[in-house]
Amino acid sequence: MRAGEQAIVVEVGLDDDLAGWLAAMGLGPGQTLTVIRRAVFGGPLHVRTGSGGELAINASLARSILVAPVPSPGTA
Questions:
Q1: For residue 54, what are the domain limits?
Q2: 22: number of Cβ within 10 Å
Q3: How far apart are CA 47 and CA 61, in angstroms?
Q4: Based on CB atoms within 10 Å of each CB, which residue in 4, 10, 66, 67 is the most buried?
Q5: What count of other Cβ atoms lies within 10 Å of the Cβ of residue 44?
């Protein structure tokens, strides 16, 4: 994903503790996220959650989060 793109979290493929922590931070299934910035050279991904929180997650963690594009208005 590129900066400014939005997506909906479909699944978090991590252990229950880490998945629960991400859900508490606003990155659980069904929640939206917006990419704010991608660091170079595989650095962290800075995202904004649908509830307005912001966090940086490392690339390995980001690869464990399955997302889908946010439907355009009128296509849902």
A1: 6-69
A2: 22
A3: 12
A4: 67
A5: 15
CA atoms lying within 13 Å on the CB side of residue 59 = 6
- Look up residue 9 and give its amino acid: V
Is residue 76 in some structural domain?
Answer: no
* Domain count across the chain: 1
Q: What CA–CA distance (Å, rounded) separates 21 from 76?
A: 29
pLDDT tens series, the chain, 76 aa: 889 999 999 999 989 999 999 999 999 999 999 999 998 888 899 999 988 999 999 988 999 999 999 987 776 5
Single pTM value for the model:
0.84
pLDDT value for 75: 62
- φ, ψ of residue 43 in degrees (nearest 5): -75, -170
3-state secondary structure of 11: strand
